[in-house]
Amino acid sequence: MTDSTPPAPTDHATRLGPVTLATPLVAASGTVGSVVDFAAVGAMEAYGAAVAKSVSDEPWSGRPAPRLAPTEAGMLNGIGIQNPGIAAWVEEVGRRIERVGVPVWGSAVSHTAHGYARVAEGLESAGVAAIEVNLSCPNLERGRMFALDPELAAEVVAAVRGATSLPIGAKLSPNADDVVAVATAVAAAGADWVVLTNTVWGMAIDVHDRRPVLSGAVGGYSGRAIKPISLRCVWEVAHALPSLPIVGCGGVATGFDVVEYLLAGANAVAIGTAHFAEPRAGRRILAEVDEYCVAYGVGRVTDLVGAAEAWQ
Fold first, then answer.
1. Hey, is 43 helix, strand or coil?
2. Alpha-carbon dihedral 4, 289, 15, 200, rounded to 10 degrees
3. CA 219, CA 188: separation in Å to the nearest integer?
4. Eight-state DSSP code of residue 221
């Protein structure tokens, strides 16, 4: 007789420094709105956390239309982080956070380190569980994106660390010359984990109108095609800084994508663009992770973290 006992359920729990997540999946900022509204249509039980759309110290109007465009393998966006500012956000969103059912992380942006600190204070007052520092925002005063410069990135993280007692994650850019150097700097400045990565710079041109498809010409490229780029960043940082927790992000659409990020060294994995086509993608993706774990005799998702072996 064969043993018909069903396999034990996979232990989904994982850790990001001081934070324990019930599952390794994170709903990425910018793809689930304020989270509180998305919770009505998304399968939130699949996520260990969900990150609200970035908010700044003062209202930002964003870029003029057109701001979104599909591509052959993903999408471009040049929204410009339109948001109502932290004061209005706290009033409109903060009082509804506790109804979501999973931890909600706030996402902070600004043009100055002081502005980031102000946003962090507001997010903490609203009751978020952690703060993601979006370092991919252009710094108008010095002319460079914070995430491209280790010193500037560390300055921002240090300001946020001084303004809040909440756990902090630093969202880095794949466009950086040396992502390991930036990760090293933000970790030293107080980041509890890093998010690898944000969108890749890209553009497209409408051959009929002979104009860029975005009003700002260059925007953030996301979707399936950027996974090898983000995965490379995870691999490099995980090997250089093995004690620094990582949230892998970029091109995730299946359970195999999640497993790949975990094997590369990520402790958790964010789902972003996939939500636009499939709001309940998290439920399917987590089930696919379970199928993989059963097939390969993996009892805990943490057993996969950093388990990929380099060629000798």
1. coil
2. 170
3. 30
4. E
Q: How far apart are CA 245 and CA 226, in angstroms?
A: 21
Tell me how far apart the alpha carbons of residues 291 and 288 are, in angstroms, rounded to a whole number. Answer: 5
* Catalytic status, residue 293: no
- Size (the chain), residues: 312
CA distance 251 to 266: 14
pLDDT, tens digit, 9 for 90 and up, residues 155-182:
999 999 999 999 999 999 999 999 999 9
Taking only the tens place, the pLDDT of each residue in 190-204 is: 999 999 999 999 999
- Is 42 in contact with 279 (CB distance < 8 Å)? yes
Does this model's pTM top 0.85? My answer is yes
CATH architecture type of domain 14-304: Alpha-Beta Barrel (3.20)
What the block records as the tokens of 106 is: 């706030």
Selected catalytic residue, list 137, 233, 249, 293: 137
Question: Cα separation of 225 and 165, whole Å?
Answer: 37
Strands (E), 24-81: 25-27, 49-51, 68-71, 74-77
